[in-house]
Amino acid sequence: MGNSDTDSTTSESDSSSELDVGSKRFNPLKALYSAKLKVPVPKALLHDNVSTLEGKQLTLGGFTEKFDEARIRQIRASQNKPKLAENEMPQRRFLPEQGPVTRVRSIRHTKNIFIRLEKGFEGPLGQLQRWMEDRNRVRVSIRKQKGVRGHVSGVLELFDKHWNLALSDVCETWTRRKYRYSENRQHPDSMEAPRDCSERLRRLGIVLPELKVRPADGKKNVIITRKVPQLLVKGEMVVLVTLEPGEPQASTSKGTK
After folding, report:
1. Are the C-beta atoms of 153 and 139 separated by less than 8 Å?
2. Which of 42, 205, 233, 237 is deepest in the core (most CB within 10 A)?
3. Which residues form the Sm domain (predicted)?
């Protein structure tokens, strides 16, 4: 008898502790279906879940604030956006990760010859840059298929790492044969007499540079000179770049290409 009374007392205490909200052994499932459950605060407000209570307390400013349903409605009403007008279209609200993608320019479009010149060159290209900044006249030897064709002299305006040169106030000098021996395979009757097209070119606004021819050392060649305002020399045609004879040369100058 004593053991049975002890077991019944223990089971009753365990059952009451499982229905006690403040107990560590509280069983919510058993409390949900038990008729013996006693609510600690009978006038406590009912909420759908814990998240609802947490959201309302955070609206008030935290769990340290006193719960006030009227104040919650007032705060939420002030936070609500005004209603749209009749003809006003709603605007879509994007999250930060849903916003427009910022376009980053590739390095290819941020590098150009002017930025490269600001950084400066070293070696022969550095000497070219000093001549360009000092506005010195340079002489550029030009190649042909076999050997050197001639040279051009002018003020260096711009260049790149491939030795493409932009010159201004250019004087071009080259050598060619005095007489060009070529076989004329056309029938004499089909050939037209040569015509002077200088007037037609002048009407079109095209002015050809004047050529000055002078004899060379030998009898077979002549030296031709012409002046043009601007000239672009491709890097593959450059043989040598030096200062024009008669130009003052700085002590730091070095040979180029």
Report:
1. yes
2. 233
3. 130-243
- What domain count does the chain have? 2
pLDDT digits (tens, 9 = 90+) for 31-50: 888 888 877 777 777 778 88
- For residue 152, the domain's CATH number is 2.30.30.100
How far is Cα of residue 218 from the mean position of the Cα atoms in its chain? 58
Q: Residue 86 falls within a domain, yes or no?
A: no
Are residues 71 and 148 located together in one domain of the fold? Answer: no
pTM of the model: 0.49
Q: Domain containing 220: what range?
A: 122-181+209-243
pLDDT digits (tens, 9 = 90+) for 135-167: 999 999 999 888 899 999 999 999 988 999 999
147 with 61, same domain: the answer is: no
